[in-house]
What does this fold into?
Amino acid sequence: MPLEQITGQVSKRGYEVRLPLAPGEMIYGLGLQFQSVLQRGRKKTLRVNADPVGDAGDSHAPVPFYVSNLGYGILIDTARYLTIYCGDKVTKDGPHPAPAGDAQTAARVAQLPKSFERYNMDQTSEVLIEVPEAQGVDLYIFGGPTMREVVQRYNLFSGGGPLPPRWGLGFWYRAYGQARQEDVLALAEELRSNQIPCDVLGLEPGWQSHSYSCSFTWSDKFPDPDSTISKLNSKSFHVNLWEHAFTHPTAPFYKTLFPYSGDYEVWGGLVPDFLGKEARAIFGDYHEKALIANGVSGFKLDECDNSDFTHSWSFPELSRFPSGADGEQMHCLFGLRYQDTIQAAYKRRNLRTLGLVRSSHALAAPSPYVLYSDLYDHHEFIRGVVNAGFCGLLWCPEVRDAKDPEDLIRRLQTTIFSPLAMVNAWYIRNPPWKQVDREQNNAGHFAEGWEHLEAVCKQLIETRMRFVPYLYSSFVRYHQEGIPPFRALVMDYPDDPQAWAIDDQYLMGEDILVAPVTAGQHARDVYLPRGTWFDFWTGQKMDGGRRVNVDVPLEQIPVFIKSGTLLPLAVPTLHTADVESFQLNVRAYGPGTLECTLHDDDGTLKPDITTLTLIWAEDESQGSVKRSGSKGQIRYSVQKWERRLT
Amino acid sequence: MPLEQITGQVSKRGYEVRLPLAPGEMIYGLGLQFQSVLQRGRKKTLRVNADPVGDAGDSHAPVPFYVSNLGYGILIDTARYLTIYCGDKVTKDGPHPAPAGDAQTAARVAQLPKSFERYNMDQTSEVLIEVPEAQGVDLYIFGGPTMREVVQRYNLFSGGGPLPPRWGLGFWYRAYGQARQEDVLALAEELRSNQIPCDVLGLEPGWQSHSYSCSFTWSDKFPDPDSTISKLNSKSFHVNLWEHAFTHPTAPFYKTLFPYSGDYEVWGGLVPDFLGKEARAIFGDYHEKALIANGVSGFKLDECDNSDFTHSWSFPELSRFPSGADGEQMHCLFGLRYQDTIQAAYKRRNLRTLGLVRSSHALAAPSPYVLYSDLYDHHEFIRGVVNAGFCGLLWCPEVRDAKDPEDLIRRLQTTIFSPLAMVNAWYIRNPPWKQVDREQNNAGHFAEGWEHLEAVCKQLIETRMRFVPYLYSSFVRYHQEGIPPFRALVMDYPDDPQAWAIDDQYLMGEDILVAPVTAGQHARDVYLPRGTWFDFWTGQKMDGGRRVNVDVPLEQIPVFIKSGTLLPLAVPTLHTADVESFQLNVRAYGPGTLECTLHDDDGTLKPDITTLTLIWAEDESQGSVKRSGSKGQIRYSVQKWERRLT
It folds into this structure.
């Protein structure tokens, strides 16, 4: 991009920035957008909002960062609700849109899909940004040369992706919101005895003596919290606790926090000023000593976004905080600094965590938190996976309710092939596979033949367990190289216009393409980029560089493996602490000498990561294992090698 | 309201206003809101937006005016996107919400429906308003003592409601967007020969030689525009032309307008600076001489809102205009001043008009324009009728496409009982009652048995014609007394908590309650306020003060007449110019001496309005007609008197 064409200007409204857009140039990013992937031709106002039902820019995690398919990225360093016009604004006096001048641009434009024409995407234009109130703004420009490298640089500049605990990549189940400690223990027992894998059990608001707002102390539903946690831990369950930051007068640190909170209450609770070190220390210290020390492995940080746009429960934008921030700035940063606060407590204990959070913002890559939403459209949930990868975010398309078993299976498939595989059953006493109807479920009436549905779900969850080694290594690459483990096709195929607008498929790790299906679909179109691909389930070989219509039997989410992939699949176990989970079946897809890389470490906060390379030479009957890097532990071993050529 | 409790404060972000809210106090208004009627407990940011899919305050016509059930209204005089928090914001240091202190308030709170509890509506609270950038703001406070009087005062302060031409209250039909002049003449012929009433034919973009943006000159589809209009006029059709204000280079006044337009183009056209008298004069003068002088009766002023929030086609908020306004201010006022511009041209010709417009704002009551939307949810369209009446707006729940005949009939029923009864068939060559399927319709394939559907629609349109005298008099009251002809139940029953949240029923004129039905409903709940009511269709008498479940046969929209009403119904005619349309059948509902008032005038811009009172004494076998007021014309006569007692 010609840097000299970037201009800035103070106005009475704030600060304006203009950046050039070339013919055929596409723009992506701006955070967790649910409604659109391709941002060229759109206007977005980046307001923090828990209910982003339109395509106006509202988001749980709006991020003032965008990336261009021409191989650069722009971070606008602001905690204001900026407005960005991604092309299509033309001044009457200024240069008018013009078609491509040079041959390279003309060639790019010539490839534009027909459906792109209405946005004038074949013309020159500009990106126009307005930052309210600011008298100037810093832009950070990330070079490529490829789009993927831009995102890598952005993520590495942020600190690199998080290194999650291995258990975080297993299966998560959140228990009924009003469950008592004996219910939770019984649930744990049921999962183990029915042989349904599970690494994390989540507790919803009922664990607290007061919510909303939060007391952060155990309710009488949990008379023996420490022993309950300890029993769960002994069965290799990690415990994740729901909370939000709004601090009820009965919270032990309410009085200490009072001077370090905003002027407005939320649900009768204080809003901690997480931009100040005092609030972070008070809040984090309590969490460390009262909860983390007793075995709580992580938290679900709810409602740290801003739901004023539906019902007015959050603090207003005109709030004032001791740190000097107003409510708008605090909304932009509240989720991020809340994550930092809890993260610092885990760091002091030298523990890794993986948690859930409802809001985030710029430069969030290193934070071991995965976003979620109270919205629930399955298509939007899939689009969330596609979009999160542009901006250093992780997104969990959790399963909550399901309208029927088909819907349950389809949603479960998506979450299984996502950063965090979770069923959030806060609203039902029994697992959804026993009964999807809420009332019936809570009355203990199970659906006829539920055992079959449970078996299907169990098999899906086992599929998740098989991918843990692959996923863990993808996260290590996120951590070390900044490559998002889940990302849009365009990020790997920026020069393929057919990939530019795809919002219902994504890449998982280096070699796998996922094309989720929603309830009611009996077939779906899948775009396979250039190269050769293999159907994960049937092994069928397929030529890429084209759109194919595939059948979608209910029990199979379309997953394709790139030819040239050596795919290590674990033996499914009930949890990741089982040493059996390091036993691998390795599948080679396609001819030639193939390699893949795996990682292992001791699970500490800053581990020596040991790298393991699996190599299968073309002419050998099986592959071999090569260790490299540090002298740390390696638990993997291969029990089976398979090769698929056709 | 205790005025001394209103406070204001400058901040670095703009200006803040705080107003008290009492326990059980309800707030309404804020313009054409589609998602909610009762605003207490909600936050709204009043952005101008053509696609308000969420409940965040975005609206075609956001109006910074609200009215309280305690009998006062507040106008915030700003053309900024203000944010208003309608209760539920609490400062940690300030007074906390408290229940009612006095007996009157306690009694009000005691009546609150159970469903209101979650919003803390039984507590004291405050309305918090933030106006960006402003260093102060004028508040206009309208007294009651009743809620209806507040709205009357607001409307009269604005100049009173518009006096529409009588033909504007007939039936409107917008022709296929690409229709040629012969198609339009054939359509007119078909409507007359099939005896389907119609007063106004609308032409969509195809009439112009260029759109979008607009050339404002006839296309080659209309080689003889003047004779076409004249032929239509001679058959008592009024012609309404679609346009928007964005002025294409081929428009005859493009060059003259250039210096009086904003810095950004929209669809390659100029944005007239309607805040300056030059742009208004250039634009209005052309319309007067080139179109109005040749018989065009009105316009549909499209896209004067702001659709940046979906696809970025409008001018940005940071635009600059010669008048000094920026784009945000211009978006707030563009629709209003556009209406003024056209209205001024009609005034110069001493003609009344009634038109359509996509955006409006504060103090709009006198403007003879009815809002419409590209959104199409039937529930929201009904809610639009309910909400528009709080703020001096009129709303048209137009019929466009229908998914099946049931949907067509249900939607047509709603538009028949609305300020402007219109089918907008821009997308189909033939009337929707011949074929609801778009492709089939355009291929000329009519549905089997379409004649029956046409007959049902015809009967509904005739129902509209029967209500024209009643509606005209309701508009005269809007004009003279400020009483909205369509309004929420709460406006007439502010002391009835059951009426407070009703968003799917409304009052039409003084005496009629309308409860529209959407496709798929086979019965519906209707809340009948205190008193006695009669079913319009069956004459069945029903006790009010309760919720009743009524059957909804497809051909009947639930309409209820208050006992004590003398209802004048016209003989249905093909258009309002037919003198037969002044022949009345008068129905008396309930016992006693009943009266109603009708109005007639010569149709000029500032007419002498003659008032006619119909009186039916309890003991007479029929009523009588009493003339009062000016010596102007009276064309009404009664051909039949009927009384219904049980």
